[in-house]
Specification:
- This protein has 104 residues and is mostly helical.
- The protein has 2 domains: 73 residues, no CATH class; 30 residues.
- The chain is built from 4 helices and no strands.
- The longest helix is centred in the last third of the chain and has 26 residues.
- It is elongated.
- It starts with 9 loop residues before the first helix and ends with a helix.
- This is Pentatricopeptide repeat-containing protein.
């Protein structure tokens, strides 16, 4: 960050550094830590966040599922896709009707 943006932005470093490290970007977290200490910003977060052996890295589940879907992908015709979509929507419509009926 620029020196002109230093005023009152110490908490920004406290948020960014742990977030980057939990995301696995320990190098970028270390760069921000060094930058903040060089500018004299007092950080409230612990330096343990920068240690990969201590900090648990968040692993998103969603991306893994998407990759698995791509691996198990079998091409379908438009007719097959339309049938699947209709079945899914039919179930939703039924539930919606039942929900509306129970409200009245």
């Amino acid at each position: 960050m620029k020196k002109s943006s230093l005023g009152g932005y110490g908490p920004v470093y406290d948020l960014l550094i742990p977030k980057l490290c939990r995301g696995g970007a320990f190098e970028k977290g270390r760069e921000l830590w060094d930058e903040a200490t060089a500018m004299g910003v007092v950080l409230q977060c612990s330096s343990d966040v920068l240690d990969p052996s201590i900090t648990e890295v968040f692993k998103p589940v969603r991306k893994v599922k998407e990759e698995m879907n791509l691996l198990n992908y079998t091409p379908r015709s438009r007719l097959e896709v339309a049938k699947v979509v209709k079945k899914k929507n039919k179930g939703k419509r039924k539930k919606k009707k039942e929900k509306n009926a129970s409200r009245t």
